[in-house]
Design a protein that fits this description.
The complex is a heterodimer.
Chain A (H helix, E strand, L loop, with lengths): L1 H19 L16 E6 L27 E3 L5 E3 L2 E6 L5 E5 L13 H14 L11 E5 L2 E4 L8 H4 L24 E7 L3 E6 L12 E6 L3 H9 L5 E2 L4 H8 L4 E5 L4 E7 L13 H9 L3 H7 L5 E2 L24 H10 L3 E2 L5 E3 L2 E2 L1 E7 H4 L2 H10 L4 E7 L2 H10 L4 E4 L10 H7 L15 H12 L3 H18 L3 E7 L2 E5 L2 E2 L16 E2 L6
Parallel strand pairs in A: 1-10, 1-11, 18-19, 18-20
Antiparallel strand pairs in A: 2-3, 4-5, 5-7, 6-7, 8-9, 9-10, 11-22, 12-22, 13-20, 13-21, 14-21, 15-16, 16-17, 23-24
Chain B lengths: L1 H27 L4 H10 L5 H11 L5 H13 L13 H36 L4 H15 L2 H15 L11 H31 L2 H8 L4 H29 L3 H6 L5 H11 L2 H29 L2 H5 L1
Helix pairs in contact in B: 1-4, 1-13, 2-3, 5-6, 5-8, 5-10, 6-8, 7-8, 8-10, 9-10, 10-13, 12-13
The chains are: A alpha+beta, B mainly alpha.
């Protein structure tokens, strides 16, 4: 019996050894040659790869496989991409002159037909605010194409920088194989695990120094960081803000930050129904905005990885017009006076009361966007006698449901500015012309709508910036329907082998092609 | 044989209940899959018209009973549907991920048995003595440490400091060691505890006293008389634990970026990818039923008296 038991034990040991040494079930996940292969650890795989709407290798992780007609510079300006130049021809029509000598990864030349095919594909997915429809794009000749959105849209050029509008080879299926014109081409993609792209030697622009890029998806931020420390990857994206300073002190690791590209905003519900009617009163909205110490928020919650900003977008996108915005300074006395003036008196427990109603608000947020901001506001606003409850939703769909229901007083969001359209957020989130129904909670008055309309109709970028700034001024400084809390930076970390990396404020436009890798880590 | 058939038949209502649960759970989750998919494409909040149009195309506007019946009929025909996010079949995804999770779970379960059973027997044989005390401390620690703490500790030691093993990923033998070890620590601790208590139950009984009186050695008493009882107890526990591991170990798979079912389920829930959620919940439920059934049948085979008690 004893011999039998020992035999069983040994047999089981054998099975374990076989299992541990089992041949790879799905192949090796680390590229063999690593000298000129940049290994990047990034967040969870969020690619949508359905047939008509695939954004594989393009968005949100841009692997530089595909390009748009125009591109977004790190200071939020539009620069030529696959289009060398463009002009407005009147009647809501834009004409693009394509770059010559550009070829797709399969060797076919870039022609106007490819632009038509790609834009019709985008139109079929019916997303975005560019108003492109099938038939909006007309081929003029092999290298000229006209685009006429279905509704007047003078901001089209600034919107086309988004990777959604990347040009892919006619007839190709980007959900299966991405055939585009970028400096890299897709070699292998394994859902949830990695995407491997290699240099495309037929690229029309400067040849990348790297042979390949290998992006690995790490859903867990701590593991991602440990992978960098273990030398398993050369670079990581999205370093958690609370860990960035600690990582900065680690030998052989360099931490880099983007310019401001993400904004932390509070939208106040002006048109809610009871009990969410507190912010219908402008005095209460202003008091709320004045009761928050933004610098303390940035230091304590966001670990100093941001800046107080006065607008709804990174200041760079508004150009010189950004100076027209003031934003809110902390002024507790003024806040208290405003509330007193509105009839809200301090109650027994320190929370203000008016006609038996407590000054209590619900702040709706998404856990990954708030990072404790809600709790910070809770503590801060207690100082002016306002009670804050935080409704932290675990994910985007749950947040959307709550937002649509209107059962909130404030909505905390942290959008990224991924195109060069300065009026993008005011038009989408606050305007009566928005095609999104949640804007109904935040609608403003006629002057705001007029400013948005002028910004959308402006023929020049500087005019659009001026009117966008005016719309923001009305929404923020005048009306306090929007309370900007901070502009935030995305944080990257890399080993000392990596050089030439320029962090882009819009991750969707991040360029990897200038990066070089040293043979061995520099001291 | 009749009893086995009866057990199998009695599992059918459970399986049907699982299909209802799998379908209802995903449908009741707040959020609109069409809105999520559209927003994932551009990062912009989609228009209401676009959401409504996609909902129609996805068949989400049909009443619940119609959608459930359609899904159930398709599943009965082996069609698990198409993922909303990838547009490809759910069945290949399930196969691929289930294989990875099974590899991880089986490795962890075997390692836990190899470590836990001998340690449990030693602890029982040396009750209240040095080895037993140390093992009990080990069991307490092993069962109380959260998986993510163990995971990070193992990564720091074996990947960052020693650089012996990869931090995360899947597909090679080296990748399985750390996640399997993380699972093994908790699992082995439970095995030690159950083996020890199962064996001790019998060591105090008349059967073992009689065996000792007949001159049987302590080792023989433990292995021949006490261990079979402990094994039965362990088998009942192992069935449930192993089945739940087959359904995916979310925390461990996430920490180690292991491409298994747990990670796939989390992603599908965030995306409201109903067909994937339904398939994964259904698989996990079926795994639980099948493994428990197998455990029950093994117990019957080992101890026919269970039949009489049943």
């Amino acid at each position: 019996m004893v011999r039998h038991a020992v035999g069983v034990h040994l047999a089981a040991c054998g099975v374990l050894v076989v299992l541990a040494g089992a041949p790879a079930l799905s192949g090796c996940t680390t590229p063999a040659g690593r000298d000129r292969v940049l290994r990047v650890g990034t967040t969870v795989d969020e690619y949508v790869t359905t047939r008509d709407t695939s954004r594989l290798a393009m968005y949100p992780l841009n692997t530089n496989v595909a390009e748009s007609l125009v591109r977004l510079t790190p200071d939020y300006q539009v620069a030529p991409g696959l289009a060398e130049r463009w002009e407005y021809r009147g009647d809501n029509t834009w004409r693009f002159h394509l770059r010559r000598g550009v070829v797709f990864h399969d060797g076919r030349p870039l022609t106007a037909e490819a632009v038509r095919w790609s834009f019709d594909r985008v139109a079929r997915s019916d997303t975005g605010t560019s108003f492109l429809r099938e038939g909006s794009t007309v081929v003029v000749d092999d290298f000229t194409v006209d685009v006429t959105p279905s509704r007047p849209n003078m901001r089209l050029i600034e919107q086309l920088v988004h990777p959604t509008y990347a040009i892919v080879a006619p007839g190709s299926e980007p959900g299966v194989e991405v055939i585009a014109t970028g400096p890299f081409r897709v070699i292998e993609y394994r859902r949830g695990e990695f995407i491997h792209v290699a240099r495309f030697d037929g690229y029309w622009g400067p040849r990348p120094a790297l042979d390949a890029l290998h992006f690995r998806f790490f859903p867990d931020a701590t593991s991602r960081m440990l992978a960098l420390q273990a030398g398993e990857v050369d670079m990581i994206t999205d370093v958690p803000r609370e860990l960035a300073s600690g990582l900065s002190g680690t030998s052989g690791i360099h931490v880099s930050r983007t310019p401001l590209g993400q904004v932390l905003l509070l939208y106040l519900n002006r048109h809610g129904s009871a009990p969410h009617t507190v912010f219908a009163d402008g005095a209460v909205r202003h008091a709320f905005a004045l009761g928050i110490d933004r610098n303390a928020l940035i230091t304590q919650v966001w670990k100093g990885e941001g800046e107080a900003i006065p607008g709804m977008a990174p200041p760079a996108i508004l150009g010189a017009s950004a100076s027209h915005l003031h934003g809110f300074d902390t002024a507790l006395d003024r806040a208290a006076a405003l509330l007193e003036g509105a009839g809200w008196r301090i109650g027994g427990d320190g929370v203000r009361v008016r006609n038996g109603q407590r000054l209590a608000v619900v702040i709706l947020s998404r856990r990954e966007a708030s990072m404790g901001t809600g709790e910070f506001l809770q503590a801060q606003l207690r100082g002016i006698g306002m009670e804050v409850a935080v409704d932290d939703q675990p994910d985007l769909p749950s947040y959307q449901v709550r937002l649509r229901s209107g059962e909130f007083d404030g909505a905390l969001e942290a959008p990224n500015q991924n195109d060069a359209n300065p009026v993008f957020l005011p038009a989408l989130r606050l305007s009566a012309t928005s095609n999104n129904r949640t804007s109904k909670w935040f609608l403003l008055d006629a002057p705001f709508e007029a400013a948005v309309a002028r910004a959308l109709d402006s023929a020049t970028t500087s005019d659009a910036q001026r009117w966008a700034a005016e719309a923001m001024r009305l929404a923020i400084d005048e009306d306090a329907t929007v309370v900007p809390l901070a502009g935030l930076r995305r944080i990257f970390a890399s080993s000392s082998r990596v050089s030439g990396f320029v962090p882009h404020p819009s991750f969707a436009s991040q360029s990897w092609q200038e990066i070089t890798l040293a043979e061995t880590p520099s001291p | 044989m009749r009893l086995m058939a009866a057990r199998m038949l009695s599992s059918l209502p459970t399986l049907l209940a699982i299909t209802v649960l799998a379908f209802t759970l995903s449908s009741l989750t707040p959020g609109d899959p069409a809105a999520v998919i559209l927003q994932r494409q551009t990062g912009e909040v989609p228009s209401d018209a676009a959401v409504a149009s996609l909902r129609r195309a996805m068949g989400l506007d049909d009443p619940w009973p119609i959608r459930y019946t359609r899904w159930l009929v398709a599943v009965a025909n082996g069609d698990l549907g198409m993922s909303y996010r990838t547009g490809s079949g759910v069945a290949p995804l399930l196969r691929e991920r289930a294989l990875q999770t099974a590899w991880l779970a089986t490795t962890a379960a075997i390692a836990a048995a190899l470590i836990g059973v001998p340690c449990g027997l030693v602890a029982a044989a040396r009750q209240h003595r040095g080895a037993d005390r140390w093992l009990r401390v080990g069991v307490l620690l092993g069962e109380s440490w959260p998986n993510y703490v163990v995971a990070y500790a193992l990564i720091v030691v074996f990947s960052v400091w020693l650089r012996w093993l990869p931090v995360a990923g899947g597909g090679t033998w080296a990748h399985v060691v750390l996640p399997a070890s993380t699972l093994t620590i908790g699992l082995a601790s439970s095995v030690v505890r159950l083996t020890r208590s199962g064996v001790l139950d019998v060591l105090d009984s008349d059967v073992t006293t009689a065996a000792r009186a007949r001159g049987a050695s302590s080792t023989r008493v433990i292995l021949h008389h006490a261990w079979p009882h402990g094994a039965r107890l362990l088998l009942a526990f192992a069935g449930t634990r192993f089945a739940s591991l087959l359904g995916g170990a979310v925390i461990v798979e996430t920490a180690f970026a292991w491409p298994g079912l747990g990670q796939a389920l989390v992603t599908a829930v965030f995306d409201r990818d109903y067909p994937v959620i339904q398939a994964l919940v259904l698989y996990a439920g079926c795994a639980l039923v099948v493994v428990n059934l197998a455990a029950d049948l093994t117990l019957l085979w080992l101890d026919p008296r269970t039949h009489v008690r049943a």
